[in-house]
Sequence to fold (326 residues):
Amino acid sequence: MKAMILAAGFGTRLFPLTIDRTKPAIPFLGKPLVGYVAEYLARYGFREIVVNVHHQPDSVIAALGNGDDFGVEIRYSIEQPNILGTAGALDHARDLLGDSTFLTINGKLITDIDLTAAIETHRKTNAVATMVLQRNIHRERFTEVLVDNGRITGFGGMPESTPLSAGSDSPYMYTGIQILEPRVFDYIPRGIYSDIVPSFYRPAIEAGETIAAHVSDGRWFELSTMKRYLDISMAMIGGGGNVTGWHTEIAEQSSVSDSVLWDEVIVEPGARLERTIVGDGVVIRSGQKFYDSAIVRAEMVRNCGEIPEKAEPGEFIGDLYVVPLR
Fold:
């Protein structure tokens, strides 16, 4: 079975960390985030992987190469000049995916969800598609997926943040993993931008197709914001430490805690960092103190052309650009 990693997004909520790379190419505990996804697929026997790219495509291609380092064989579906959406991406790659069952997964996940069990659900139900779901226990802002007797019946809005009443269940949310039959292409329009829910899922449900729900309780992290990126990094190392990249130097007389420092970072004596993400090549000067922040070199932001509309606001502090984590 082939798999497709969706890696074409803009990563605006991770700006300024995504100035020179797209979200799946950011470093996470010593390797590119999308590399973890490739290795995860390899553990379940997937060898032929399609990766779609659009924004900063070279950053993903440089991170993954031909896939040898991750135990897979990678082919790229390059979406240019325009990004094509979650359904348009499948249409653009349909010749690479072939005419048999395939799996897709978002390129920004860290998970140990059992894919063998999900594929078994898909085959057992003879579904045209199976969405892998989890309970949204913390009622985060993920679209609610409506399920009845193991079948997906529709999609709701974002869950209310108010506490659940006694005896009520948490809503279901989509994990970004789905198993699809080639018949999905009967629904997806050719050659245009389109998203998977309005293009395929809603029409297929209305037509009476079987859309199976596979509910997993495996570990699942989605690194879509800078705060989530930092929180998950700390959780993965057990907390109370730092993640440091290649050729990063931290002076003994400085204080750095619960932080992620990328490559070639210098922290001078007397500087202090706490719960901070520091991008490549940043120098934290003596006496500077930063907390709950993301920091990159100011020149990168000044030269990037335009700050994305959805980016968190930041400020220039000398030769640094600093964004508070929210």
Summary: The helical segments are 33-43, 57-64, 85-92, 94-97, 115-125, 196-206, 226-236, 298-302.
